[in-house]
Design brief:
Layout: H1 2-9, H2 16-21, H3 25-46, H4 58-68, H5 70-78, H6 91-102, H7 106-132, H8 135-146, H9 153-156, H10 161-181, H11 189-205, H12 212-223, H13 230-239, H14 242-260, H15 277-291, H16 299-316, H17 319-330, H18 333-336, H19 347-371, H20 379-404, H21 407-412, H22 416-427, E1 437-442, H23 451-461, E2 467-471, H24 478-483, E3 487-490, E4 493-496, H25 502-506, E5 510-514, E6 519-523
Helix pairs in contact: 1-7, 1-10, 3-7, 3-8, 4-6, 4-23, 7-8, 7-10, 8-19, 8-20, 10-11, 11-14, 12-14, 12-17, 15-16, 16-17, 17-19, 19-20, 22-23
Length: about 525
């Protein structure tokens, strides 16, 4: 509840006492109008996602949370540094209740995902305003952040709910921290626990949250005055730097556990880091290119752009700009050394560039207002009108980008095959007896990951006592057989890579043949 009090009830900038003493209720009305407009703008693009589907990438995690049960995934969230059996245990808080109450109906999943993003908007507006001390900058930055065509998968693809929730708790932790520190107060022990709890939740959803302690520490360094001696430095460390340092210790524990455990993700090629300056610059150039609507950014141009941002921040002597200059370099670090990512993975990075864009636009408009002395329009009025015109131009351009690539229809088709297979299973109206063995014989390759078909079947029947055997559509070669067992077993599911013998088939209580649109019971008791 403290998060929502911070974002909704405390949407004022840090100088809230001055606002109240001036007795100007319209200021509150402006804040409410800004947040309302931002939410309506976001929903304009997001509501079509309600018609979306569950996609195959959601099946393994959803099955894992269901099969192991609440006690195991609750404990895994407490022991957030352990990699097995859940890579990202926080997802259970999203998937398990939705599956428990709504099964595999996709609409509730999409509605909740959209609702979380919409609930983030007041918080992002408040965070932006805390950093910039400006309604106009906060409004424009949040407008650029709440919906970006390059990050459309954040809204339309269910498997990116991890990025959505990681971002929510990352920004919640930072908002909560700044809400306290911008009043020049230090975190009390209970407040420190609250901040760390929000941070751990962000880690439970996605590993890209590991940069938060560094961002908080840089914020404190930029906020403090120069130290005249070591005593002042030590005093600053004991008071202001403690939250960042404690969070840093938790991060070290998290990184060690996730990279050295039996199920460490870095053992997989998709997550194995490649440490090189060239790879670092290549990935970051790709990130910036995606955020700049596909405009190609060479490596040297990226270095020049970073340098330009740092120089501008120093010349302006603006604390927010300096923090965002560090933000755009540090926040993408968890993604910078692994195989190329993009889209929804850039949610946190987009905040930094959105703030920089809004600040540069504000400074440029201020410069123009000072030079147009012949116009009899008050400078504040001119700045407001000009910023609103920039916001309208950005909104129109975003809508145009959506329509130019027909993005909504493209992303609504994602997961259609999953929905078709679910409907094929349901058309059987089959209720297997508890403890039965079910053999699935796919007529075609339905999913890139064959396991997903068995996970989906287990979730359709919602019975942990069932044993599900899956005959692989692709048989292994002799060389592959030498490296991989003929049959692999995970939980209540077995996948056979070679054709089952008649004796093995005879042991199955049910034999089901299926394609994308049709399922048939070949044999039943």
């Amino acid at each position: 509840m403290s998060i929502f009090r911070t974002s909704l009830l405390s949407i004022r900038k840090p100088s809230q006492q001055q606002v109240q003493s001036n007795g100007s209720p319209p200021r509150w009305a402006i804040d409410v109008a800004c947040v309302t407009a931002l939410v309506v703008y976001f929903l304009h693009f997001a509501l079509p996602a309600v018609a979306g589907n569950l996609n195959e990438d959601e099946m393994p995690e959803l099955w894992r949370y269901w099969y192991h049960g609440p006690l195991k995934w609750l404990w895994a969230n407490i022991c957030f540094w352990t990699p097995a059996p859940f890579y990202r245990p926080g997802g259970a808080f999203y998937y398990w209740p939705l599956y428990h109450f709504f099964g595999l109906g996709p609409q509730p999943y999409r509605i909740v995902q959209i609702a979380i993003l919409a609930a983030s908007i007041p918080m992002l507006y408040y965070l932006s305003r805390c950093l910039a001390s400006s309604r106009l900058i906060a409004f424009l930055a949040t407008l650029a952040l709440c919906y970006h065509p390059g990050l459309i998968s954040l809204v339309f693809i269910g498997s990116f709910s991890y990025e959505v929730l990681c971002g929510f708790f990352y920004f919640a932790a930072l908002s909560y921290y700044l809400h306290i520190r911008e009043t020049e107060a230090h975190l009390r022990p209970s407040q420190l626990i609250g901040f760390l709890a929000l941070y751990v939740f962000a880690l439970d959803f996605k590993e890209m949250a590991v940069t938060l302690p560094v961002i908080v520490l840089i914020y404190e360094v930029l906020k403090c005055h120069r130290w005249s001696d070591w005593r002042q430095f030590i005093g600053w460390g004991r008071s202001s730097a403690v939250p960042a340092l404690v969070a840093g210790l938790l991060t070290a524990l998290y990184i060690y556990g996730k990279t050295h455990g039996p199920g460490a993700m870095i053992k997989f090629d998709a997550y194995r880091p490649r440490y090189s300056c060239s790879h670092f610059l290549t990935t970051n150039a790709h990130f910036v290119s995606e955020l700049f609507y596909g405009f190609a950014i060479p490596k040297k141009a990226l270095l020049g752009l970073w340098a330009l941002v740092f120089i501008y921040a120093c010349l302006r002597r603006d604390r927010m700009l300096r923090l965002m200059a560090f933000w755009i370099v540090i926040v993408p670090l968890p993604l910078a050394f692994i195989p190329l990512r993009g889209g929804a993975h850039l949610y946190l990075l987009l905040f930094g560039w959105a703030m920089i864009f809004a600040k540069v636009a504000s400074d440029f408009i201020t410069l123009i207002s000072k030079s147009l002395t012949l116009i009899k329009v008050p400078a504040p009025v001119f700045r407001v009108v000009a910023m609103l015109l920039v916001a309208c131009a950005l909104a129109i351009f975003t809508h145009w980008e959506n329509q130019r690539f027909d993005l909504i229809h493209v992303f609504l088709r994602v997961g259609q095959k999953t929905s078709h297979v679910i409907q094929a299973f349901r058309s059987l109206d089959l209720h297997p007896a508890p403890g039965s063995t079910i053999l699935l014989l796919p007529k075609e390759e339905l999913f890139a990951n064959e396991w997903n078909l068995a996970f989906l079947a287990a979730l359709v029947w919602n019975d942990r006592s069932l044993q599900i055997w899956l005959q692989s559509h692709n048989e292994l070669t002799r060389q592959q057989v030498a490296k991989v067992p003929n049959m692999q077993i995970v939980g209540n599911i077995a996948l056979s890579y070679n054709k089952l013998t008649p004796q093995q088939v005879a042991k199955s209580d049910y034999v089901i043949s299926l394609s994308e649109f049709h399922a048939e019971v070949v044999r039943a008791p």
